[in-house]
Amino acid sequence: MPKTFANFSVNHLPKVEEMMLGFVRKYAEEATLAQAMTYSLEAGGKRIRPMLLLATLDMLKQPIEDAHYQVAGALEMIHTYSLIHDDLPAMDNDDLRRGKPTNHKVYGEGMAILAGDGLLTEAFHLVTQANIEPDVKVAIMQELALHAGSAGMIGGQVGDIEAENQEITLDHLASIHRRKTGALIMFAVNSAALLAQADEATRRHLSHYAEQFGIAFQIKDDILDVIGDEAVIGKKVGSDEALNKSTYTSILGMEAAKEKLNEHIHDALASLEAIKVNQPEVDTALLVELINKLR
Amino acid sequence: MPKTFANFSVNHLPKVEEMMLGFVRKYAEEATLAQAMTYSLEAGGKRIRPMLLLATLDMLKQPIEDAHYQVAGALEMIHTYSLIHDDLPAMDNDDLRRGKPTNHKVYGEGMAILAGDGLLTEAFHLVTQANIEPDVKVAIMQELALHAGSAGMIGGQVGDIEAENQEITLDHLASIHRRKTGALIMFAVNSAALLAQADEATRRHLSHYAEQFGIAFQIKDDILDVIGDEAVIGKKVGSDEALNKSTYTSILGMEAAKEKLNEHIHDALASLEAIKVNQPEVDTALLVELINKLR
């Protein structure tokens, strides 16, 4: 039976979710806080980041262990906190996320801020408890902080806010999204390479794959914001335009954006082929399927 | 010349501040984000947490090194992020902090939320770079996440918000403040004991000192909120009453609160004496002076 992402997900995603939810419930002493934190974790979503991490480990022939679910769960917790804070009235002011009321709509703004702070802090806490060699664990936490922090995701979010109501260049847009969405996707792949202690060449090809993945992911997101189905994307169509945000489609136009998306997918696939040149036995099927989903 | 806290501070505090500010400036890629993060770090304050950490290391005969400034700086960055978020309109809605406009008053709510997120994330990032044995470093990051997270400071802040406009018992109040203010004070002392690899008995006595310190610190804060000098405390007197918050003075009355403060200081001093029973050569002068400052 060929390996498919659907099968892989069925096996592994529930364990990532158990790991996150169990950990949050164990340490959140106040009932309301635990509810606010788990509400957004349970709101689902594609779980693309943790699954990308686990699929990369699988490609690198690592049997998936609890420690991997812990790092994958920490990554999804960081992603989830960023959504809670981004949705706040002081930022994107969204009422709906993944088809459900946003965290602050249910728990109030103060609690949503604290639930986000809690998820961010507990993400690092979760990694400290994973059964990983201390030096590798420190390297992973360093990579996580670098990509989630002010040189990564947070810097990208600031850049995004500051670019509202402005005409920006394609390079500027790319720099924002390399950090805002690209950084955590990069962490997903890089941390798997660290955990598997992959060789230098493989790490380089994987990083290139992740970089292309991040850009393709954002272009697709921008396209769906124009032509998507609200029931599928779980939020209002046209929200970028409403916030007067520059996007790949607003700068390039729809057709050129679609072409650019295909180019980045093509580049990502080429990186996987490059890994196979030296290691023909490697099974890249999952990572191929994941990037092709963005078409 | 006897060792005084003033001399100790003059030697070490500038290095903690350099470490924090240099690190934040290095990684915050967006200029506004860097400004918002450093604005609150530079607003000063008593720096009681990092100095308690360094004073404990000094008592344990550790020469103070860069790694220690890094952990102390990370602790102050976590404390600072918590102040930025607590001051937001959705929480305590404070316009002034340490006599200066609060972060969101200067940079707006969205940026203040992100500056807080950035300081929290970069705090962990800073510790990952410290020159500490990987297993000790992981232990310190675990201790930091535990005390700053939902079982610690964040849980305490949630408890505090939920107790507004309610009559609560002294035990409930103590449970809130053991986490809200006590947890980071506990981390200051415990992380120093981890860094110095202190023996079990010394750690226990130090933990007891930190616990008493945390309670005494909060009682003093509550007393100053009633009878303090606005110019000295840097915020409006009477803000607890305005928010209808239960405090040690509102529950016990001023005289009994002062008495309780003295009891906890006495207990903290007894813990230091207990360390000297087995190690008469230990110089507890700085920790004695620090707790006596709360009288």
TrEMBL record, chains A, B:
CDD domains: Trans_IPPS_HT. InterPro entries: Isoprenoid_synthase_dom_sf (IPR008949), Polyprenyl_synt (IPR000092), Polyprenyl_synt_CS (IPR033749), Prenyl_diphosphate_synthase (IPR053378). GO terms for molecular function: (2E,6E)-farnesyl diphosphate synthase activity; metal ion binding. It catalyses: isopentenyl diphosphate + (2E)-geranyl diphosphate = (2E,6E)-farnesyl diphosphate + diphosphate. Its cofactor is Mg(2+). Keywords: Isoprene biosynthesis, Magnesium, Metal-binding, Transferase. One of its GO terms (cellular component) is cytoplasm. Its EC number is 2.5.1.10. It is an enzyme of class 2 (transferase). It comes from the Bacteria. GO terms for biological process: terpenoid biosynthetic process. It holds the Pfam family polyprenyl_synt. Belongs to the FPP/GGPP synthase family. This is Farnesyl diphosphate synthase. The lineage of its organism: Bacteria, Bacillati, Bacillota, Bacilli, Lactobacillales.
